[in-house]
Structures are given as C-alpha cells and as structure tokens.
Amino acid sequence: MTVRTVAVAAERFPIAGKFAISRGAKTEAVVVTATVSDGVHAGRGECVPYARYGETVDSVIAAIEKARPQVESGCDRCALQAALPAGAARNALDCALWDLDARRLGVRAYEMAGLHRVAPATTAFTISVGSPDEMATAASRARERPILKIKLAGAGDPDRIAAVRRAAPDAQLIVDANEAWAEADLAGHLAACAAAGVALVEQPLPAGRDGALASIDRPIPVCADESVHDRAGLAALRDRYDAINIKLDKTGGLTEALALADEGERLGFALFVGCMVGTSLSMAPAMLLTPRAKFVDLDGPLLLARDRAPGLVYDGSLVWPPTREVWG
Predict the structure, then answer these.
(1) Which one of 66, 247, 250, 294 is the catalytic residue?
(2) Which of 33, 83, 96, 310 has the most Cβ atoms closer than 10 angstroms to its Cβ?
C-alpha cells in the first residue's frame, strides 16, 4: 500500500508597497503551504489564513496537522470535505490532493475537472483604499490595465470612485466595500457607482446584515463575497445579490469551489473568481474556474514584490493557466 506523507510550512512574501482595505493594511502576505507525497509524486496547495474568518497561521497549521493522519492514511478529496470545514486549511490540502492526483495519473487537473483546456484570462488589478488623491495616483499608474478593482472604506467613497474614474477613464471598474457601507449609505454610494460607470459592487453591507439589498433598486449588479463561503445558505441570497465571489480559501478548496459554481449557476448568479493576496500557487487552481466567470480577480502575484518560482505567467493583466511545473 502506498504510504503518504504530509508536510506543512508557513512562508512570507513581501507586498509591493502595501495592500489596504477597509479593515486595515498589510505589507506582506503570509501563506501556508501543504505538500502531500506518495513517495513518487508530490502535490502542493497554498492557502492564506484570514483573520476576518477567525483564522491565524498557527490555527491553520494546527488544523492541517490534525487532519494529517487521515490524509496520510489515504483520505481522498471527497472524504476531505467531511474531515475539515470550509476554510484555508482544507483549501491547502484539497489543492495538494488535486495536484498529487494529476501527477499520479499523468493528466492535467483541468482534465480531471472535465475541461478540454483553460485559456488565458484577464484579471482585475486592485487599487488599495486611501485618500481620493492617493487612489487617483495609483489608478493613473494602472490606467492601461483593462479592469481595476477599487477598495473602498465607507465614508468618502463617492469621492474615491469619482477620483479613480477621472484617473482611469477607459478602465472597467469594480468596487469592493469589504462590508464597510452602512444601510443609509446604499442609495448615495450606488448612485455614485452608477455615475462612474462601475460594472459591479462587491459586498457593500456586512455579512448577516445585508437584508436591505433585497428591498432596494440595484442600478448595477451587486456581488456577495463575505456573505458566501460554500453552498450552504446560497439559495437565501438570491434576492440580495446578482453575483457571487468564489474564493478557494473560503470554499475550502477547488472541490467545493466547483460545486459552488455549479449551484450558483443553477440559481442564476453570475460568477466572480477571486483570491486573497497570495502567490501563484494560490491562484493556479482557481484558474480552472475562469472559463465560467464573468469577472476574474486573480492578481495576488501582481501585488507582491516577488512571487514564488516557478509561477504563473502574467502579461500585463492577462494571466496564463499554470504549467505542470507550477500546479496541476
């Protein structure tokens, strides 16, 4: 019988400048990598612990270590869904098992997912929240990119939106409030988005307190991020959101992400494929979702001062699917 081993490590990658959202700023990405080996082949998966969901690097490593005996005893991707809850720890192990299975079987992960190929995708590029002038300067530097994702913070957001639009008149704009708006802000902030030609608004209200979205006119599509992790409760969001942001660190890996995409499409949601700030190893499995996505935000490596090598190939905002050396 093949004996598996599991290795887990935390790694740090500096961010180019800083990454700032409504909940705070950071200057480095701290990721956790799981490697599952059968003695001949090794598969890797990367996750990004996220404090918003009660995760730390130590807690994620501890969860992976707790699941180690099951994985080393042969737990497959299906069984892993019951062994660990959705979240970063399961993501790292699930993606490592996808990678391992692809290498062991001599096929590509996208073939295992039922795809004939994965084409390059155009990713959004994130503008961190700051003053209107700061954000306009950042947007001006990135104005040749086709899609900009603007991080917002609540008070003063109409000025931020207008400043970015003036600085990047030709870019498609997505705005992401990260739960920072109040119900009283909705009408005014959505009007400012509409006036700037914004294509999508992500998570304007806090998760669990987003019921007001069901009773207002939405002049532009609204996307659930913090309000949706996996398929549980997805149907209850149909009257509030037009799209869902699928992130593997929320779903707990590619296995549930693909199932969530199926259910989201069945319920009529547009799909958005997103990421935390991580390396190419975090982005690579999510590339399998891009053929179905209306919006793609896999710019994590573009925000880093250095990516891991080998990594995904980025040509401006065009991101190419992973080679076998990277993942899958």
Answers:
(1) 247
(2) 96
Give the separation between CA 210 and CA 214, rounded to whole angstroms.
8
**294 tagged catalytic:** no
| Distance from C-alpha of 171 to C-alpha of 164, rounded to nearest angstrom | 10
User: What is the average per-residue pLDDT within 35-45?
Assistant: 97
Could you give the CA distance from residue 61 to residue 59 in angstroms, rounded to a whole number? 5
Contacts of 117 (CB under 8 A, 6+ apart): 110
Q: What is the pLDDT of residues 50-72, one digit of tens each?
A: 999 999 999 999 999 999 999 99
Closest CA to 127 of 181, 168, 155, 170: 168
Judge if 5-107 and 121-319 fold alike in CATH terms: no
Query: In what side-by-side order are the strands of the sheet with 243-246?
Result: 125-127, 147-151, 172-176, 200-202, 222-224, 243-246, 270-273, 295-296
CATH architecture of the domain with range 5-107: 2-Layer Sandwich (3.30)
Q: What is the pLDDT of residues 94-147, one digit of tens each?
A: 999 999 999 999 999 999 999 999 999 999 999 999 999 999 999 999 999 999
- Count of CB atoms situated within 10 Å of the CB of 70: 16
**pLDDT number for residue 2:** 67
Residue spans of the domains in the chain: they are: 5-107, 121-319
- Note the pLDDT tens digit of each residue in 146-183: 999 999 999 999 999 999 999 999 999 999 999 999 99
Confidence at 222, pLDDT banded by 50, 70, 90: very high
Q: Catalytic residue, from 149, 151, 250, 294: name it.
A: 151
Which residue type, as a one-letter code, is found at position 140? Answer: S
Cis peptide bond N-terminal to 14, omega within 30: no
For the domain bounded by 121-319, which CATH number is listed? 3.20.20.120
